[in-house]
Amino acid sequence: MTLSRFSTLLLLFFALAQLALAAADGRNGKIQGVALERITRDPIVGAHISLANTNEGATTDDQGRFVLTLQPGTYSLRGSAYGYDPLSKPEISVLPNRTTQVELLFIEHAIEGEEVTIEAGYHEGSSNDLPTSSRTLSYEEVRRAPGAAEDVQRMIQALPGVSGENDQNNEIVVRGGSPSENITVMDGLEIDNINHFGIQGSTGGPVSLLNPEFLRDVTFASGGFSAKYGDAGSSVLELELREGSLEHHHGELEFGMGGVGGLYEGPIKKGKGSVLVSARRSYLDFAIADAIGLTAVPKYWDVQSKISYQLTERHKLTVNGLYGNDLIVFDSDKPDAFSRGSESVDYNGNRFILGTRLRSLWNNGYTDLVVGAVSAKTDVTVEDAEYDNAGGMHKRPVLTNYSRETVGQVSLNYNGKARERDQWSVGGGIRPVRLHHNIWFADDTTVFRDGVLAAPDGYVDTLIRAEYTARELKTSPKYNGFVQYTWRPKDNLSTTLGLRYDGFEYSGEHTLGPRWSLSWDYHPRWTLSLAYGWYYQALPFWMYTSDPNGRNKSLPHGRAIQYVAGTKFRPNESSLLSVETYYKDYDDLPMDEEDYVRKTTGDYTFRSQLMLPIRTKRAYGIEFFAQQKLTTNWFGTFSYSLGKSETNDMAYGRIAADYDFRHVMTAVAGYRTSFVKNKGYSAFKKHWYGWPINLLPINGDELTFSTRYRLMTGRPYDRKIWFTEGANSPDPIYEGHWFADGENNVRYPDYSRLDLRLDNKHYFGSTSLTFFLEVQNLLNRGNVAEYYYADNGKRDTL
User: Fold this and answer.
1) What is the pLDDT of residue 107?
2) Pair type for strands 509-523 and 493-504
3) What one-character-per-residue DSSP string does 450-475 give?
4) Based on C-alpha coordinates, what's the Rg of the chain?
5) pLDDT of 339
6) Closest to 181 (Cα-Cα) out of 222, 239, 133
7) Are strands 235-241 and 182-186 parallel, antiparallel or unpaired?
8) How many Å apart are CA 136 and CA 130, to the nearest integer?
9) How far apart are CA 639 and CA 114, in angstroms?
10) pLDDT band for position 23 (50/70/90)?
11) Which of 126, 129, 69 shows the shortest CA–CA distance to 100?
């Protein structure tokens, strides 16, 4: 019945889409772009922009703008300008009667008379802010990535040095760090978590809040980033969102992994600005929940918008808004992938993001003034399910968590030229943090053998952990500032030195971290990169308020010292080979005092919510990466990471860290073909008997087949042993219970997954239909997310 409803919904959607595909004029689309100098963002006049493998092209005007009118399809651009390095940009999708916007950032090349060989490539060169370990992706690469479900974070998991905790969420684990060590920057606004059902204190969740149709460019750095970015120990995910059309009004219907909804874009005030807005809702609650094995159905919806307005020729204002609402209820003693083993959960949450950016161009540089706020609410009630002799279920509340965390941002950054070809930047800001936590834990009774807590008297002794509540309602600012200078003694050599300051008034912690990097193109096809830096990060907010007595408020920032070295080889303009090594040295990491005392003294009656900053960690490894950009028909990537991550403390000694994935291999391969210029196919479609083929998935004006295979070492976890009532267990607990025999001393089974994806695009006059069919986990492998230890001694597998 459920699958029938889903099939009916799918057919209804395609029927509505087909009715909307009326033949009309305006089959061609446009690429509208701007050529800018990378450092100052000044327009480049007279740059020549051409299509790869064709003679078609255009020249930029006095505002650096250009327009190309093209048949629908996917294209690659090349750009050249006197005094600048040539560049290329692959996979630009053009739809009928639509305008696709691109931004080309040129690097100035000094003209000194010597013979210099410069080759354009589709792999963007390193920037001074992200000198090492960075990859730049286009919207189309994110959209058609197999296995990613059009989720940018799941797509990032295919890059070297990146792994995911499990398939139930899109958390990214970078080079042995934790999922809380990453930061997302969207049009200059810093965001800790941009997901539905966002995991508190982490950067992941099951479903992305961001509509991928808003993406223009995605840049991800897994280490070695400059002093511009802070409060992150592992990685930076930078999202640049596109703007709405400045010429025409467009509409879009969407039915995909993120939900069902629509999108509108169009000009405002005669092209002085534009608006882009979308709304989506999940459909699992009335479609396929049973078919994919969910015992509870997540319900969520989101709205997103971006308004852009050109105040003057040199001042531009953009406003981004994003809101999502989440609801899920578990009412079963059957473990579920989303419940993390809890028996009964009532979850309600929302996330609100609002940010404005004023970009102003000056004589030798530009400024970004960003004002915004990010707010996240979590309202959770957890209950245990208990059964009486008649089989009736009774619920006992064990946890309630109401949290509202709001982080504002006011920041001003300047980026400009120094001397002839050097660059310098400076910036700073304040981020007011408002914490509203009200977390309650129920009491817990533990029964011990006679004589443990008192002299033997023939009675069983008990220890009761009293219920406790952690409350906090306070506003406290975070501060940050940075300065950095890039020296370019030659066009092929640059080095950047920077200093970063971060402070948090709530904890009283203030830090200074130096950063340094070097990039050397010692051959036209080879680049050497080095980076070093101290990266401080404040702890997740719940850690500061977790102790009822407030003893965790003064916890120091964790510190990661990073060393990165790598080299890149470009055999041709569309291919890239790279190898990179890294070493990260952490200190001041928190450890539960309760675990420390129990392990070192054997006193299992000890209770505490205090955290001690006594744990250290180190992570090191080597990464290999190969990529073929889509410039003809074939594309793909191959990444392999060999790494080790281990912690060290006075209780457990040196052991595997929580996210110690020793081996991670991901291979992606795809093929694309186009029938747009095939006259026989076009003529066949115009006949009445050719129209029905549009409903077939193996058909289209443009077809893409792709696959992804991922193999990963299982992550470590604590070995647990069940002791029945009265057994001679290692601890003094009398009743049946699980005992943690060590920490991270065994591993989950290795992870293996194969995904297939088919994309096709249909063009009907001024309308287009993009269809995708994705088969995830084709091998039907039950990859273990985690084990759930029931009170009756049974271990279940999620």
Assistant:
1) 83
2) antiparallel
3) TTSSSS--SS-EEEEE--EEEEEEEE
4) 28
5) 47
6) 222
7) parallel
8) 10
9) 38
10) very low
11) 69
Cβ neighbours of residue 574 closer than 8 Å, sequence gap 6 or more: 90, 121, 122, 628, 629, 631, 632
Question: Both tokens of residue 164?
Answer: 């995911």
- 3-state class (DSSP) for residue 682: helix
Q: How many residues does the structure list for the chain?
A: 798
Q: Is 720 exposed, middle or buried (0-12, 13-18, 19+ CB in 10 A)?
A: middle
Q: How are beta strands 702-712 and 716-717 bridged, if at all?
A: unpaired
Q: Is the pLDDT of residue 416 over 90?
A: yes
Residues 6+ apart with CB under 8 A from 315: 358, 359, 360, 361
Q: How far apart are CA 72 and CA 179, in angstroms?
A: 40
Say if residues 327 and 300 touch (Cβ distance below 8 Å): yes
What is the rounded CA–CA span in Å between residue 278 and residue 226?
A: 34
CA distance 179 to 113: 50
Q: Per-residue pLDDT averaged across 150-162, rounded?
A: 90
pLDDT for 93: 85
State how far the Cα of 706 lies from the Cα of 727, in Å rounded to an integer: 55
126 or 736, higher pLDDT:
736
Instruction: List beta partners, residue 444.
Output: 465
Percentage of the chain beyond pLDDT 90 is 49
> Across residues 691-705, what is the average pLDDT?
70
Please check the confidence at residue 44 and state whether its pLDDT lies above 80. yes
Q: What is the pLDDT of residues 754-793, one digit of tens each?
A: 999 998 888 877 788 888 889 999 999 989 988 888 878 8
Q: Which residues pair with 589 in a beta bridge?
A: 615
CA–CA distance, 526 with 733 (Å, rounded to integer): 63
Between CA 792 and CA 386 the distance in angstroms is 11
CA-CA-CA-CA torsion sign (52, 58, 64, 65): negative
112-116 LR contacts (CB < 8 Å, sep 24+):
116/491
CA-to-CA dists, residue 773 to 15, 88, 91, 248, 706, angstroms? 17, 30, 20, 30, 11
- Give every CB contact of residue 1 below 8 A, 6+ residues apart in sequence: none
The residues near 164 (Cβ < 8 Å, ≥ 6 apart) are: 154, 157, 170, 171, 172, 173
Kindly give, in sequence order, each residue whose CB lies less than 8 Å from that of residue 69, ignoring residues fewer than 6 positions away: 28, 29, 30
- Which is nearest to 638 in space by CA: 661, 662, 663, 669? 669
Least confident segment among 228-242, 313-327, 687-701: 687-701
CA distance 479 to 411: 10
Cα 275 to Cα 318: distance, rounded to the nearest angstrom: 10
Q: What is the dihedral of CA 123, 129, 132, 137, to 10 degrees?
A: -40
Statement: residue 242 has pLDDT above 90: yes
Tell me the backbone φ, ψ of residue 156, rounded to 5 degrees.
-60, -30
Nearest Cα to 492, choosing from 414, 421, 574, 392? Answer: 421
Take residue 198 and report the two structure tokens written for it: 């966002």
- Both tokens assigned to 725: 């009532």
Contacts of 466 (CB under 8 A, 6+ apart): 443
CB 116 within 8 A of CB 47: no
Mean pLDDT of the chain: 86
**675: left (phi > 0), else alpha (psi -120 to 50), else beta?**
alpha
Distance of CA 576 to the CA centre of its chain: 23
> Would the pLDDT of 336 be above 60?
no
Is residue 172 within 8 Å of residue 204, measured between CB atoms?
A: yes
Is 12's pLDDT higher than 80? no
User: Residue 84 — very low, low, confident or very high, per pLDDT cuts 50/70/90?
Assistant: confident
Structure-token pair, residue 91: 């996979």
Q: What is the DSSP string of 365-416?
A: EEEEEEEEEEEEEEEEEEEEEEE-TT--EEEEEEEEEEEEEEEEEEEEEEEE
